[in-house]
User: Fold these one by one.
Assistant:
Number 1:
Amino acid sequence: MTPDDSIGVLARITAIFEAVGDDDLGIGVSELAARVGLPKSTVSRLVGGLVRAHYLERDGTRIRLGLRLFELGQLAETPRLLRRAALPVMSALCGETGADIELSIRDGADLVRIAVVRGRSPGAAGAESREPGTAEPTAPVGERTPVRSTVQGRAVLARSPHAELLPGADPGAGIAVAVSPVTAMPSGIEAALSATLVTHDRRGLSRLASAVDAAAAEIARRL
Amino acid sequence: MQTAPVSVLDRILAIIEAVRESGGAVTVADVARATRIPKSTASRTVAELVARGYLERTGTGVVIGIRLFEFGARTSTPRRLVAAARPVLAELFYATGEHLNVAVNEGTDMVSLISVRGRLRPPPSTTGAHVPAATTALGKAVLAFTSDQAVVRGITTGLDNGARYRLERELAGVRSRSVAIDRCETFPGVVGVASPILSRQRVPVAAISLAGPESEMDPDRMIPLVRHAALALTRRLALQVQ
């Protein structure tokens, strides 16, 4: 056995989880093998082991992410600590502003979204399919994006708050986005708290920005 | 030299499992001991798991990392159940104020996917917690409708003949009333009431439960509320699928 074996296997199972997790309905083994670029027999064998361990589940011929990953996700230390500190503050911020509130955490070159509280603001970014009043939507939590590609990531890198008014779908209405970094020492957590709201005037933007800034400070204090 | 990807996989899974079971930060030496993997191999595998974010180093050892949070958040079945359950649980909580759970079966355990804190202190379970399938209302609600005899046998083999007979008779009652009750069998002083969530093919996918103090809660008053919640959740899931 060479020392590189477990790196190879870990890279392969990571590719499998990523490919399977991209599809809510799951994918078949042949399609999975094609997507991760490995022989079907290799993928079959790994999938078999991961199904036995409940990391993946089979639904007929389709494969989906399994219950054990869900359980382990609940135990992940940093998101758990950060969510515990942040969720009450995020709910209060949502109640105060009516905006969609998001919390993302930096993981190297990426930003991972770890909590979302949906507001009352119709038509805010990504809000088309939401159900009013539900605390947490489905798709966006767990999403990983390059840190430089989002306004949240850039605020984390710059370590300074940022607010801007983007053009909205309706004439006269804009989408206000306010982001404040959340940094906690000595744990070294780097996170971004952001609020998105449909608004008609720039004063809405500055009010939102100061509310987000105060909430970010409150989360850092609770950590 | 032969490569053995499956056994490498088993080593990776065993290490993650050891960290999970420790319930907090655990050292590489402890991981090696718990998994019986040679320390140098364990140390190298842990380092790779850390590099890919499956584990994370803290001052006192390693813990579960953000990569597992990311994949966990994308699991479709638990996520759908949780999304569908939230408004149903909110309504049941406003009506009762009691401790609530939605859980799925995993071997001899029920695993809570979402938990709402009621008046019980300490709360008997939290999200992600395992409770025994054989005695809890959650477990009995699911077992009564489980056609896979291997699952049922796995749970009843540990019981003596008398207990197995009583459980089988109780499960027949659960099938006819769609409600299971746990009268302080799992947690002292705690009564639980649960009802199954069935798929269109009548396969149990989960159960919803309510638990309260034996001295102050009348389970008979809770039965219709829990059964109603289970039906509401079953309907929401059926709508979600298509």
Number 2:
Amino acid sequence: MKHDSLGTGLLWIGPWLLGFGIFTVLPVSLAIYYGFTDYTLLESPIPVGTQNYERMLNDEILGTVLWNTAIFGVLSIVFGSILSIALAALLSKPARFQSFWRAAVFAPSVLPLVAIAVIFKLGYDPDPEVGLANQMIDWFTFGAFQGPNWFGSGFWAMTALLLMSLWSVGPAVVIYLAGLRDVPKQLHEAASIDGVGPVGRFFHVVLPMISPVILFNVIIGVINAAQVFAVPLIMTGGGPERSTYFHSMYVYDQAFKFGDMGYASALGVLQFAIILTLTGLILLAGRKLVYYRGA
Amino acid sequence: MNQVHESNSARTTGFRVLLYSILGMVALTAFLPIIYMVGFSTGVADPTAPFGQGGAGETVGRTIENYQAVLTDENTDMPLYLRNTLIIAILGVGGTVISSAFVAYGFSRVRWRGRGVAFMTMLATMMIPFPVVMVPLFVMFREVGWIGTFAPLWVPAWFGNAFSIFLLRQFFMTIPRELDDAARIDGCGHLRNFFYIILPLSKPALLVVALLHFMFVWNDFLGPLVFLTHRDQFTLALGLQLYLSKLGQTPWNLLMAATAIMTAPVLLLFFIAQRTFVEGISTAGTKG
């Protein structure tokens, strides 16, 4: 097989390479630079050393948004993973109209985030005549319990966001389904012959076999959770009392509400650093916990 | 598709009943937000309900007039937002498909030193969160006078999208190499091989990329929020948020009708191309 020249290769990936330079390398470098400046857009950036990063140490709001983002990230990934693996296991059972069931589970994930946020905002209305959530609590408990005032307290507002995040597990389910399909049938049979029940087979055969897929989904989950923005902005506006105020919202507000481009850039760099660190740690942990068939 | 076959003993009627009731409940729960939206959007608001609450609450009949009311509402301009979204989507979809396919060919069929490193670098860029580049991009686009135009929302698409390139590359790798070798022996260069062999065989994958980008544009909220300045340029996502912010003046029924108008095209598109779509996503997830 003949090799092509470096020039030919670069020519083919040229569009991406150019875009990589203009829309990735340049802005990321600028963000790192702006992070060390005082920049208000009205005048050129003024270098201020590590002032923006020192400011982070005493920034209580930053503490709040990091905590909120972490809580939301961890819980949405844990619950989302459990639900999506369970749904994938369910959908892998032979059944009639299989593609319909799969499409149904995926469908909510294609809804625009803004649309789904508007729907759930109404759905969480505390009045059971309006809000679906409290209406259902009313029905299922025969009126014994009254649903909470969802956006009235930090706990319930966060719970509301976590619950609704479960409607967007579609892509993860599809990926798990493909993972389950690749589990060799002989392993199932061998375990059955050895007297392992379905639960035991799930934990000792299926889970290890799909662990690389779990790793992949967790990393995607971290990247997405770190950037949650539109839904809380529309549903709660970050409230009450900043209990659903997330990192990306804070970056946006610092930049475009307060015009502090320098601090906003530093906050963005922090977000990137956190994502990189977490991904690294997860991959490292994955080396021990994940079973790779090829290796 | 090879399914996991249950042993015969488990295949009792009881098992089937349980399976289908769970499936039915799951599907119902999944559709619940959509059913709720449609229900509300077709409701006639109780005229005695307090207007400050958005006139929600008891509905006193069914109508599709809410949809007409939204399309002609003075507080919003849905037809304009729809037009804007479509312009950005079409320009962006064209760009993503063409450029990503080109680059994916360079990452799969052209053999060159450093390809692996470049490919890994490209994958790594998917980890960069938008808020990091948000401020610099705003500054850069302002420098060239693009703030308040559609350009920041579709021009970058012409430089390939990492996920689309990855997806197409995975697909190109599954096309037997003998095909290109035969073409090459016949004197085909890369360009002709790309256009006459690879692209015609990759229509489903190209469709997935087009669909994904269309949905991305349709859903994108932060991009338009940062780069668009005037209400006349708003996309549907921004328009809906604007409409929501006028809640005091907008009854929930109309808001839900607006939401339904925004949601219907993507749902329709999804159900038409459902198979292609789902397969595209699972390819990307497992063969990495």
